[in-house]
Amino acid sequence: MTEATENAEANEGAGAAATEAAAAAATEGTAAETGASTESAAAPKEQAAEPAASAPLRPEGLPDEFWDDAKGVKAADLFAAYRDLKTQTDTARADVPEAPDGYELAVSEAVTVPEGFVIDTDKDSPFFKEFAAAAHEAGMPKAAVQKMVDAYARQQIAAQNAVVEDYATQMSGLGDRAKERTEAAKNWVLANLPEKEADALLNNIGPGAVPGLERIIALRSGPDMPGGTGSKPSRPKSREEIFYGNSEQGAR
Q1: What is residue 249's predicted lDDT score, i.e. its pLDDT?
Q2: What three-state secondary structure class fits 112?
Q3: Residue 207, exposed/middle/buried by CB under 10 A (0-12, 13-18, 19+)?
Q4: Which 8-state DSSP code applies to residue 66?
C-alpha cells in the first residue's frame, strides 16, 4: 500500500468520526430544545392551576358589625353575639310561669302610688285574667309582665291626678266660699230629689256645676234657699214643685 493510499484512508476515518460527533451533538441539542419546550409549555399549566385571589363573598343579610371588607365574616364577633342572645333567651324562658295565674300583677315598689289613689290590679278581674292568659300564650317572662303592670299603674295615676287637678280648678272658680257653696248645693239636691236620682246627679257633676244649681234653686225655691247654710227643707219636693213651682202650675 502506498503512502497516498494510507493518507486517504486516514482522512476518510477522520471524516467519519467528525460526522458521527456532529450527529451526536445535533441529537443532544434537539433533545435539550425539546425538553425546554416541554418545560415552557408546562409552566403556564402550573400557573393556571393556582386560583387567582378574589374578594370575600358577603352572606346576604349579614349586619355590618359582623363583616370586614378585607377579611370577610367576623366569626368571633358573630359567635359572641349568638352566645349572648342564647343566654338571654334561655333566661327569659326560665322566667315564664307554668300557668297564667303564676304572674304577680301587683304594682311594684318602682311605682309610687299617691295616698288616696286606688290602682286596681285584681288578677281575678276579667280584664287581668284575659291579660295574663294572652301574656302566657305569648311566652312573656314575669319581668316583662311586671313592667307592663307598672306602666298600667302609671297611666292610672296620671288619670287620677288629672281628675284631682280638674276638681281643684273648679273649686278655685267658686271663690273663697267654694266649700260652703258646694255643700249647700249638695244638701239641696239630696233633699229635693229621690235618693237614686240625687246620687246619679251628684256622681256626674263637679263643683263647676254649682253656679247652675244655685240659679235653679233661686228660681224654684226662692233666693234664700241656699243661703250658704246648707239647711234642708222639711220634706222633699216633687220634680214638678222643683221645676214648676207647685203641682197646679206643673199641670198647666
Answers
A1: 44
A2: coil
A3: buried
A4: G
| Grid cell digits, residue 30 | 434537539
Could you count the other beta carbons within 10 Å of the beta carbon of residue 182?
19
Residue bearing the bigger pLDDT, 46 or 163: 163
Give the three cell numbers for residue 123. 288578677
Q: Which of 151, 99, 149 has the alpha carbon at shortest distance from 128?
A: 149
Find residue 73's DSSP bridge partners: 67
Q: Write the DSSP string, 204-252.
A: T--GGGHHHHHHHHHHHH-TTSSTTT----SSPPPHHHHHHSSHHHHH-
How many helices (H) and strands (E) the chain has is answered by 9, 2
Type of residue found at 165: E
3-state SS, residue 186? helix
Say whether pLDDT at 35 is over 70.
no
Q: Give the tens place of pLDDT for each residue, 88-144.
A: 777 767 678 889 999 988 999 999 999 999 898 888 899 999 999 999 999 999 999
> Do 188 and 217 meet the contact criterion of CB atoms below 8 Å apart?
yes
Give bridge partners of residue 68 from the DSSP assignment: 72
Looking at residue 190, what is its pLDDT?
A: 93
CA separation for the pair 187, 41 (Å, rounded): 119
| C-alpha cell read off for 151 | 306602666
Q: Are 108 and 115 in contact (CB under 8 A)?
A: no
Q: What is the C-alpha separation between 43 and 189, in angstroms, rounded?
A: 113
Backbone angles phi, psi at 234, to 5 degrees: -65, -30
Q: How far apart are CA 178 and CA 172, in angstroms?
A: 7
